[in-house]
Design goal:
92 residues, alpha+beta, four-stranded antiparallel beta sheet, 42% helix
Length: 92
C-alpha cells in the first residue's frame, strides 16, 4: 500500500508532519485548505480509520501506526485554541 505524509499548520502556528499508510487522506483533505480543528480531527479519524481497515483487509490486522498517528492528532488538537488547521502539502 502506498504510504504518504501530510504537512499541516495548527492554529497556534506550529507545524506537524502526519503519517497515513494509504493515499486515502487525499480523499478527505485538500492542500491549501483550512479546516476548523474539530473538522480536521473528524476527517483525519475517518481517513486514518479507512486506511487502517484497508491494512486489516489485506494483512489481517489493523495498522497500529495509523492509530498512533490519530492519537497524536487528537492530543495536539486538545492543546489548540479555536482556529483552523491549514493543509500545507502532501508527500508521497
Amino acid at each position: 500500500m502506498p504510504e504518504m505524509h501530510f504537512h499541516i499548520r495548527w492554529p497556534d502556528g506550529s507545524r506537524d508532519t502526519c503519517y497515513s499508510p494509504s493515499l486515502v487522506i487525499k480523499d478527505h483533505l485538500a492542500v491549501g485548505q483550512d479546516y476548523p480543528v474539530e473538522e480536521f480531527v473528524a476527517l483525519s479519524r475517518l481517513a486514518l480509520g479507512i486506511a487502517s481497515e484497508r491494512v486489516r483487509a489485506r494483512y489481517g490486522f489493523p495498522f497500529g501506526r495509523a492509530q498512533a498517528q490519530l492519537a497524536r492528532i487528537e492530543t495536539s488538537a486538545r492543546r489548540q485554541g479555536p482556529g483552523t488547521v491549514h493543509i500545507e502539502s502532501f508527500e508521497e
